[in-house]
Predict the structure.
Amino acid sequence: TRPDIAFAVGLLGRYQSNTGHDHWVAAKKVLRYLKGTRDFILTYRRVEDLQLVGFTDSDFAGCQDDRKSTSGYIFMMADGAVSWKSAKQILIASSTMQAEFVECYGAATQAVWFRNFMRTFTVVDFVSRPIQLYCDNSSGVLFINNNKGITGFKHIEIKYLTIKENVKNGDVIVEHISTDYMVADP
């Protein structure tokens, strides 16, 4: 349960069936990091307006083995992380925009699930508001928020287009954020 090592653990996990010397060196580096940061804990603050906010990010073709992108998201509530993911995408993205768009889909799916889960607790009122998602790719944000059909994107699987429906239905709001403020950097 450490979002700060999610990327490293995911990367090492890709090679667990065929480890080499470099993988052992990297794993020991993660263990040394954990030893040095064992006092790090997830903290939450008392806030007036309990709100779930998500951040999504992706690299483009970052895996040297198969050129798939690594992407991730993190959701924050009460100034602390409540959900996060860092994983290699299952498809090979043909552009940075597509890699970011696919991760926004994953984060929006998680946001809708989290919202439905929180509806079972009547003490929180944020479930009636759209969940804010931040993405640092302006083309991806424009594509998600554009209600018109856009030509040239038939290669994007239909399932990923559900995020556009999530926005249209008011489940999520997707906005651009500067890379300087992106906390979900995979």
User: Anything to note?
Assistant: The radius of gyration is 18 Å. The mean pLDDT is 89. The chain is about 35% helix and 20% strand.
